[in-house]
Design brief:
Elements lengths: L3 E5 L6 E5 L3 E2 L5 E2 L10 E2 L5 H4 E5 L6 E5 L2 E3 L5 E3 L7 H5 L20 H15 L5 E2 L8 E5 L2 E6 L7 H13 L3 E6 L5 H10 L3 E4 L5 E3 L2 H9 L3
Parallel strand pairs: 12-13, 13-14
Antiparallel strand pairs: 1-2, 3-4, 5-9, 6-7, 8-9, 10-11, 11-12, 14-15
């Protein structure tokens, strides 16, 4: 369990006790962003990928991954960005310990917001073995694009099924970057989108509210079974 810190809202001055959530590393150990008890919380006024994600090293295996920056909603309506401690120079230079390679059981992230959907997809891709997960350079036609080494993924948290155009645009963008692609949707896919994905070689997943990607086509089944090549 992570240590709780006191967080003061800069808008209403209320104090809250906050503990950072733990995320599952590929090795199976929990990863918790290190909080700075001496830092000052700031109000979130706009969204930017670089501000929302931080690099955290797993203390068990040494892998470094991108995870959501801790946030807390105050009762006054202000969304607070909780301060995170910086790693010391010794921690940054230390050689990470070795860890076993086999994949552990997937540990999903419950989906309550669009941000959670992106986190769930990123956690799943990391579990499959993809590295360097980040925001995609090009914005997709709908949803949010994330990328990993050799892969482009689209996460669609909207309430409408993904369309034929959505799937084709993802595939075309991936082709220009010489990358494979995969689609995650909360609301499924239109019939023609599913048919087109099969011909283009695009794995399709539906994210259920537990955060577990459910394969929709055979390509997704194969990816889930084999992981990143």
């Amino acid at each position: 369990m992570s240590e709780s810190v006191s967080v003061r809202c800069p808008a209403c001055r209320r104090e809250h006790l906050y503990a950072a959530p733990a995320y599952p590393c590929e090795c199976g150990a929990p990863v918790v962003p290190p909080l700075d008890p001496a830092g000052t919380a700031t109000a979130v006024t706009h969204r930017a990928w670089d501000d929302e994600w931080i690099s955290v090293r797993c203390t068990a295996c040494g892998r470094e991954g991108e995870w959501p920056r801790p946030e807390l909603g105050c009762t006054c309506g202000t969304l607070l960005r909780v301060p995170v401690a910086r790693a010391s120079a010794e921690d940054e230079e230390a050689e990470p310990p070795k860890a076993p390679a086999p994949r552990r059981a997937f540990q999903p992230i419950t989906i309550r917001t669009a941000r959670d959907a992106v986190t769930a997809a990123a956690v799943y891709l990391r579990w499959l073995g993809y590295r360097d997960i980040r925001r995609a350079d090009q914005r997709p036609t709908s949803g949010i694009g994330i990328a990993a080494h050799g892969l482009l993924a689209q996460v669609d948290p909207t309430v409408r099924p993904a369309s034929l155009r959505d799937v084709e645009c993802l595939w075309l963008t991936a082709m220009t970057e010489s990358a494979a692609c995969v689609y995650f949707s909360l609301s499924g896919y239109a019939p023609d989108a599913r048919a087109r994905a099969d011909t283009l070689g695009v794995p399709l997943f539906v994210l259920d509210l537990t955060g577990t990607p459910q394969p929709v086509n055979t390509l997704a089944d194969e990816l889930d079974s084999t992981g990143a090549c």
